[in-house]
Design brief:
Rubrerythrin, domain 2, ribosomal protein, 55 residues, mainly beta, 0% helix, elongated, 4 strands, four-stranded antiparallel β-sheet
């Protein structure tokens, strides 16, 4: 039986600080259909910034 990869796709979180740093994670499409925005640490800026989902 095949896995349901379409329900939990792999997404990239790109920094809004302009450094181009990315995190890679998975999200549940059923519970969060909108674009994800998380506040995470950007090591190039050495501070926390918003990371937005890009597809």
């Amino acid at each position: 039986m095949a896995k349901r990869l379409d329900l939990r796709p792999v997404i990239k979180l790109r920094s809004t600080g302009g450094t181009g740093f990315t995190y890679v994670t998975r999200k549940n499409r059923r519970t969060t259909p909108d674009r994800l925005v998380l506040r995470k640490y950007d090591p190039q800026l050495r501070r926390h910034v918003d990371f937005r989902e890009e597809r």
